[in-house]
Amino acid sequence: MKKPVKVAVTGAAGQIGYALLFRIAAGDMLGPDQPVDLHLLEITPALGALEGVTMELNDCAFPLLNKIVQTDDPNVAFKDCDYALLVGAMPRKQGMERKDLLSANGGIFGPQGKAINDHASRDVKVLVVGNPANTNALIAQQNAPDLDPKCFTAMVRLDHNRAMSQLAEKTGAHNTDIKNVIIWGNHSATQYPDIHHATVKGKDAKPQVDDAWYTDTFIPDVQQRGAAIIKARGASSAASAASAAIDHMRSWALGTPEGEWVSMGIPSEGSYGIEPGVIYGYPCTCKDGKYEIVQGLEINEFSRGKMDATDAELREERAAVEHLFS
Ligand code: NAX
Q1: ipTM score here?
Q2: Which of 287, 277, 233, 282 is CA-nearest to residue 257?
Q3: What is 5-154's CATH number?
Q4: pLDDT tens digit sequence for 222-275
Q5: How far is the CA of 86 from the centre of ligand 1 (A)?
Q6: Is the CB of 116 under 6 A from ligand 1?
Q7: Cα 16 to averaged position of ligand 1 atoms, centre (Å)
């Protein structure tokens, strides 16, 4: 059996946390031969609820769960951690402007970025789930100057999985027949779900659907799926978000299959004409614990416009939080 790795999860007593922790402990994220220590971070008033979650984790008697640390101190939570899933965030309250939301989250992700900088493993893999995920990841990364910026990623994998599922349903195929969709840009309504390079059962996806369905149904449905879930369930996506977080980390840690890519929100270095620095959804392949952007994809005029629009939103978000960078 391998040596245990340390996995920090913030917002551990929340609804995504409740769907996420048991799967990490069961080995779904890092494999059936990788024991884990769970470092669970919550705000002080939620420590009681966290104790309940911990009791349930213990009651599962998971063979791979080595140890649980519960804390309200980020310095303890991120100590020597190899993986960090930043789920806890400030929810949008009624009447709150996006700008206020961004700043309020800066109060969480700035200090957490600093604690990661000061205490985590030097090649920690950080996934930000808490919204606005891309810009929260940027705030954390900007407060961790001693770490490689590539340690910080944001989750667009739920959108990626939603796109796969909707394309499968439309074409009468199974999810496993769908390869290489892309979510470009922000995890927000400006995200661009792109099927120009996707395949269904090994054949180009785009000619298998009509243009009107692609532009007027598929793209808005993927963009608005979160709102549709809230309307139907009366609560935001939780199990599917947790599942996507597991997928993101598993791909990053264990690799992507040959010839296939996944979508990850990662620091742009200018690929595909995107503003350097913003955390942007790109098609990525992963190998040996590292990710790389898939280069050289042909971008048509339609895609260019959509990719630039979501880039513009991320630049605006960055401008609203720049004062929070260390
Ligand atoms: P919940 O409100 O159920 O749970 C959030 C938890 O975070 C709470 O237990 C809270 O006490 C804790 N928390 C707040 N501030 C904290 C801090 N400073 N340190 C540690 N813990 C803290 O929300 P949940 O449904 O679990 O969603 C969590 C976040 O995921 C939200 O921001 C949500 O918007 C976001 N989502 C992101 C998605 C994505 O694809 N990137 C999709 C799903 C989800 O909407």
Answers
A1: 0.98
A2: 287
A3: 3.40.50.720
A4: 999 999 999 999 999 999 999 999 999 999 999 999 999 999 999 999 999 999
A5: 8
A6: no
A7: 7
